[in-house]
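Milestone 3.1: sequence recovery, worked example.
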């Protein structure tokens, strides 16, 4: 196994450290991981929700908000229709709670065991019979063209909140379609989970309660430049910049009416910073008789953000944290805009305590759906996990207690292994509604019973998985050989439809190729799941079979489909043809090293250092370190069932560290022995036992010192 440490220039590391005020080790790790652009660094170094993208950057968000507010005012009935997985359940709960908080009569549904993914005709008809007039889909809907049209024919408007890829040339004809993966979408981050999109609607609805909603604002600033004056203005609506203008004015050369400022500012509420000074500068630029009706925002801001009191924009520019992360310059007007947004968000109580319950669900849904932990997902998950560890929300508190996780500091990896599979199990076992009821339930005793039921479903799901693997594994091996070691396609009636995704994921992990696992149903249909590996393009693959499907959908890492069993042979033919022409990314047995640590760095504070790079998961793997010439002070073979793991005690001079080396018992005395010195690559973790936290290492590979060099890349 190769150990690879990427090159990072000393100059680049020094520049990162100096500009962003971080230590050299952190700068080196970020540089090796390619996290060097200001926008990427922002989301690694900051966690303030202020840096989340504005929900009104979705073009249809204002339409969605207006329709929901109309439904509230008219006393309409609303249905929230979600998916059956953890992302769909959390999305459903987030939106249902927000709409009920607005006073809307809101019902919800998630697919049952034998129902198809997405919005169904039956659900629409049943809702219409109850007099319903508005449906909000969450984590689904982008593929429901016929269903949306049917709803319209019944007088029902549909708002689509989704994050899946569009599989048709046109979006459904819904009242509003909010999906960051649409080609024409201007939203700056495409990899929100469904629950992330749902949370954006919640934020937009909260902002709609403020006096700034839909107000046309202009920020104006004048400053001297040599023998002239630079007049800058920014137009904003819902805190989104909609226009910008710069005019350089030489005194006595032009009056206000002949500048572009008048049409630019017309019809807008104009804000300035320090009206007295701005008035004097404007008079010098355009003449003493020049007046612009404006409002001095500085005193209002100072009352909410005391650090701005008495400071000029020039001074605030020097203090601004946001300016570090701007590649296109950061002038006084940009400072003004940033301060105005911060002020408005605080006044609107955006990201307040009442957001914490929703953010916990956003964190879990994002982790469960294997979304990249980059960009704003990092803040959403980090803040959600912090809230979860501080005060778990209703439903989640009961689940954590039943899982015996009380008192444990839960990170993203912990949630991925111990909490989200339990939520997912409900949908896999045909009872996704149980998970939604857990989070929406008002009675604590009922929630406790639902938590136990979910845990029971997960145990049953695991049992089914073990039994199905005996069926799937030999079929997978045969398929791999038949499809040229590029793809695996397995279908069998013995595979439960609720675990096709689990089986496909396991196949990709074992064989390192993309996989399709399908379940043959008694009604003559086939329900399947697809999982990507090694750069496999799921969307392109499914498009080659599109006319065979009853329904299909998904995103870059995972997808699902259904078709008639009579079409399965043709599906196999097309999978074979696709496998013949694809090129998968080369897989090498290698470990990428983030940094080599001198022995003196191995202190008890190291886990805290590692925690700064949390959350870990898709797109941000746990840190991997290397150390050389480390004496083995002790070794034991351990294991609950089979004693095939190693527990080493490593001597770093100032401290001795326990280290676990999984499935490596046979390497003791063969590759190294007690009192040998080894080079090793490892992760840092914390062993929590009986209320005590003990730092430990998890060894990924080790060899006697001097046996093999580390490759540079």
């Amino acid at each position: 196994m190769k150990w690879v440490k990427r090159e990072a220039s000393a100059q680049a590391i020094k520049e990162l450290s100096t500009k962003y005020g971080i230590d050299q080790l952190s700068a080196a790790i970020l540089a090796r991981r390619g996290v060097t652009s200001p926008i990427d660094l922002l989301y690694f170094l900051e966690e303030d929700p202020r840096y989340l993208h504005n929900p009104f950057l979705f073009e249809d968000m204002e339409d969605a908000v207006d329709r929901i507010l109309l439904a509230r005012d008219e006393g309409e009935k609303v249905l929230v229709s979600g998916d059956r997985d953890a992302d769909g359940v959390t999305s459903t709960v987030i939106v249902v709670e927000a709409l009920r908080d607005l006073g809307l009569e809101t019902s919800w549904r998630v697919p049952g065991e034998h129902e198809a993914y997405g919005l169904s005709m039956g659900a629409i008809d049943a809702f219409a019979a109850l007099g319903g007039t508005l449906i909000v889909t969450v984590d689904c809907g982008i593929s429901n063209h016929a269903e949306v049209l049917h709803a319209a024919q019944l007088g029902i408007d549909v708002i689509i909140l989704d994050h899946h890829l569009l599989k048709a040339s046109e979006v459904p004809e819904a009242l509003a379609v909010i999906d960051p993966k649409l080609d024409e979408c201007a939203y700056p981050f495409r990899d929100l989970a469904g629950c992330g999109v749902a949370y954006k609607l919640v934020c937009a609805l909260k902002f709609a309660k403020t006096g700034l909603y839909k107000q046309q604002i202009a920020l104006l600033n004048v400053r001297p430049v040599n023998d002239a004056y630079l007049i800058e203005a920014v137009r904003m609506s819902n805190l989104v910049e909609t226009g910008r203008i710069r005019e350089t004015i030489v005194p006595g050369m032009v009056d206000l009416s002949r500048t572009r400022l008048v049409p630019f500012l017309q019809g807008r509420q104009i804000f300035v910073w320090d009206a007295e000074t701005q008035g004097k500068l404007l008079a010098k630029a355009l003449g003493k008789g020049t007046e612009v009706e404006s409002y001095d925002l500085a005193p209002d801001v100072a009352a909410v953000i005391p650090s701005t009191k008495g400071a000029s924009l020039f001074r605030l520019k020097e203090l601004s944290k946001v300016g570090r992360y701007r590649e296109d310059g950061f002038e006084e007007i940009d400072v003004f805009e940033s301060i105005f947004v911060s002020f408005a968000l605080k006044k609107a109580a955006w990201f307040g305590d009442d957001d914490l319950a929703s953010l916990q669900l956003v964190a879990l849904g994002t982790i469960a759906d294997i979304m990249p932990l980059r960009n704003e997902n990092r803040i959403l998950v980090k803040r959600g996990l912090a809230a979860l560890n501080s005060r778990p929300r209703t439903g989640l508190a009961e689940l954590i207690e039943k899982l015996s996780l009380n008192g444990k500091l839960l990170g993203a990896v912990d949630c991925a292994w111990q909490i989200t599979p339990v939520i997912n199990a409900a949908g896999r076992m045909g009872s996704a509604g149980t998970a939604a009821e857990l989070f929406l339930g008002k009675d604590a005793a009922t929630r406790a019973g639902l938590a136990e039921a979910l845990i029971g479903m997960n145990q049953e799901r695991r049992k089914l998985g073990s039994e199905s693997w005996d069926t799937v594994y030999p079929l997978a091996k045969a398929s791999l050989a038949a499809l040229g070691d590029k793809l695996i396609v397995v279908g069998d009636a013995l595979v439960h439809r609720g675990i096709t995704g689990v089986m496909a994921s396991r196949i990709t992990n074992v064989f390192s190729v993309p996989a399709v696992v399908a379940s043959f149903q008694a009604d003559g249909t086939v329900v399947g799941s697809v999982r990507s590996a090694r750069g496999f393009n799921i969307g392109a693959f499914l498009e080659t079979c599109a006319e065979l499907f009853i329904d299909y959908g998904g995103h870059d890492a995972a997808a699902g489909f259904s078709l008639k069993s009579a079409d399965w042979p043709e599906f196999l033919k097309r999978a074979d043809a696709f496998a013949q022409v694809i090129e998968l990314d080369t897989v090498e047995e290698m470990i990428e090293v983030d940094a080599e640590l001198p022995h003196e760095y191995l202190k008890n504070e190291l886990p805290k250092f590692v925690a700064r790079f949390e959350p870990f998961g898709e797109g941000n793997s746990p840190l991997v370190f290397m150390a050389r010439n480390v004496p083995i002070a002790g070794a034991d073979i351990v294991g609950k069932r089979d004693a095939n793991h190693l527990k080493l005690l490593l001597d770093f001079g100032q401290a001795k560290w326990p280290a676990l080396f999984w499935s490596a018992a046979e390497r003791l005395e063969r590759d190294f022995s007690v009192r040998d010195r080894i080079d090793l690559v490892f992760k840092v973790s914390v062993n929590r036992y009986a209320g005590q936290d003990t730092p430990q290492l998890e060894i990924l590979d080790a060899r006697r010192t001097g046996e093999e060099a580390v490759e540079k890349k």
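Residues 594-712 form a domain with the OB fold (Dihydrolipoamide Acetyltransferase, E2P) fold (CATH 2.40.50.460). Residues 400 and 406 are 6 Å apart (CA to CA).
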